[in-house]
């Protein structure tokens, strides 16, 4: 480097950090620091010897390495050397220091054939205020992104609360109306008892009493149904929020696939029989075991069967199967019911969007059934897939990897 003594004297005596870098294209030493003055080494908390013979990008943050290398390559290929680069360099104590690199055309050193060989780079430390502004800008971008995400969460929450409010209002309005009618009916029944002497015919008295008892019984059953729906909605909401918050941690246990499917079929078969729907199951010939949270996977299969029954007509058929396949426990619930409109599929697992519909006999749901299935399976590292065709039926497939992939609780 004797031919560049002028530059060396300049960079060693100046107040700026300075470097000489190899910029010979298609050379394995491209970007290597051939020389460093004391000030640049001081910026990094290192000795000159520790800096020299290293590549420049070894001293910048990981996210800036490729950017710096690409910028130097672009300048070398285009032979354009008029640029200022601001980067965070990593000091010996692992703290970061923001430096501004100045690259100028007259700082390019060439060989006797005119080819660029070395580059003189000056480095200055950014003022603390400038660094704070830059940090604030990055923080502002981060906060802007978080704000957008919070708005999305808030929008989904508002949608969920709107749906819940509407459903709970309907349930409670029904309970209130029926309770009021029940109270009025009891008042009339009381009056009837007080005027029992007015009945000349005992048969008429008995018939009147029977009619009023039947009316009262119907009111009570309606109230119980509405209360049951409200309770189911609240239970589903509590489970949904627990799953989302990571408070319901899955506890995988070794289970027998045949026992599980037979158990859920036993629970559901009377409801299917009442609606006139055939419920069948299919299992492998050999015994197969798998790991999953027993209560959670049972909930998934019951929800899927309930959903299939709801949207299948009298005389239809629902089939549930289970098997081990490609390292996963795979369960399917398939029906020949009314199917699902393709436009509704993207929102099936989103409780903030009211996609629940009355069943083929007007059955109502909470809107949480499929989202809960989705979240339980996700908590196992699994997935819930759907295949459907309007008018022909639907097939839901639940896959749980073996062993399950259980995320850490929050």
List key phrases describing it.
six-stranded antiparallel β-sheet, 21% strand, 3 domains, Beta-Lactamase, Heat Shock Protein 90, alpha+beta, disordered N terminus, Helix Hairpins, single chain, 410 residues
Tell me about this structure.
With 410 residues, this protein is an alpha+beta fold. The protein folds into three domains: 2-126, PAS domain (Beta-Lactamase, 2-Layer Sandwich), CATH 3.30.450; 133-244, Helix Hairpins (Orthogonal Bundle), CATH 1.10.287; 253-401, Heat Shock Protein 90, CATH 3.30.565.10. Helix content is 47%, strand content 21%. The protein contains nine helices and 13 strands. The chain has helices spanning 5-13, 38-44, 48-51, 62-78, 128-194, 202-244, 257-274, 294-310, 369-379; strands spanning 17-22, 33-36, 83-90, 96-103, 108-110, 116-125, 253-256, 278-282, 289-292, 317-325, 328-335, 383-389, 393-401. The strands form three sheets. Strands 1, 2, 3, 4, 5 and 6 form a six-stranded antiparallel sheet that branches. The protein has a five-stranded mixed sheet with strand order 8-10-11-13-12, covered by helices on one side. A hairpin with a 3-residue loop joins strand 12 and strand 13. Helix 8 packs antiparallel against helix 9 (369-379). It is elongated, with a radius of gyration of 37 Å. Residues 1-6 and 128-133 have low confidence and may be disordered.
Topology:
Blueprint (H helix, E strand, L loop, with lengths): L4 H9 L3 E6 L10 E4 L1 H7 L3 H4 L10 H17 L4 E8 L5 E8 L4 E3 L5 E10 L2 H67 L7 H43 L8 E4 H18 L3 E5 L6 E4 L1 H17 L6 E9 L2 E8 L33 H11 L3 E7 L3 E9 L9
Parallel strand pairs: 8-10
Antiparallel strand pairs: 1-2, 1-6, 3-4, 4-6, 5-6, 7-9, 10-11, 11-13, 12-13
């Amino acid at each position: 480097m004797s031919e560049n003594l002028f530059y060396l004297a300049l960079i060693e005596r100046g107040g700026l950090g300075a470097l000489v870098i190899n910029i010979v294209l298609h050379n394995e030493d491209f970007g290597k620091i051939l020389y460093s003055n004391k000030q640049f080494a001081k910026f990094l908390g290192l000795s000159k010897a520790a800096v020299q013979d290293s590549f420049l990008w070894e001293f910048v943050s990981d996210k800036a390495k490729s950017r710096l290398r690409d910028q130097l390559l672009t300048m070398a290929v285009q032979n354009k050397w008029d640029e200022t680069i601001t980067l965070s360099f990593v000091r010996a104590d692992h703290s970061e220091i923001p430096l501004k690199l100045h690259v100028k055309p007259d700082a390019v050193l060439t060989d006797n054939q005119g080819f660029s060989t070395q580059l003189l780079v000056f480095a200055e430390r950014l003022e603390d205020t400038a660094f704070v502004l830059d940090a604030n800008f990055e923080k502002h971008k981060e906060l802007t992104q978080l704000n957008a995400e919070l708005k999305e969460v808030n929008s989904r929450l508002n949608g969920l609360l709107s749906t819940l409010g509407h459903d709970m209002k309907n349930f409670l309005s029904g309970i209130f109306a029926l309770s009021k009618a029940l109270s009025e009916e009891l008042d009339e029944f009381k009056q009837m008892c007080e005027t029992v002497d007015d009945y000349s015919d005992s048969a008429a008295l008995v018939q009147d009493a029977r009619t009023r008892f039947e009316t009262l019984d119907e009111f009570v059953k309606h109230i119980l149904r509405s209360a049951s729906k409200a309770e189911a909605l609240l239970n589903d909401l509590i489970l949904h929020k627990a799953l989302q918050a990571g408070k319901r941690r899955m506890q995988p246990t070794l289970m027998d696939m045949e026992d599980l499917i037979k158990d859920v079929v036993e629970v559901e078969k009377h409801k299917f029989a009442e609606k006139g729907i055939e419920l069948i199951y299919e299992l492998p010939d050999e015994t197969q075991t798998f790991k999953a949270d027993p209560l959670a996977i049972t909930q998934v299969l019951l929800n899927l069967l309930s959903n299939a029954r709801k949207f299948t007509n009298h005389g239809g058929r629902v089939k549930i199967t289970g098997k081990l396949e490609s390292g996963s426990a795979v369960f399917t619930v398939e029906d020949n019911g009314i199917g699902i409109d393709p436009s509704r599929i993207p929102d099936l697992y989103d409780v903030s969007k009211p996609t629940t519909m009355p069943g083929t006999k007007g059955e109502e749901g909470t809107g949480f059934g499929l989202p809960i299935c989705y979240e339980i399976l996700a908590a196992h590292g699994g997935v819930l897939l759907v295949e459907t065709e309007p008018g022909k039926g639907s097939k839901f497939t639940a896959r749980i990897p073996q062993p399950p992939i259980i995320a850490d609780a929050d």
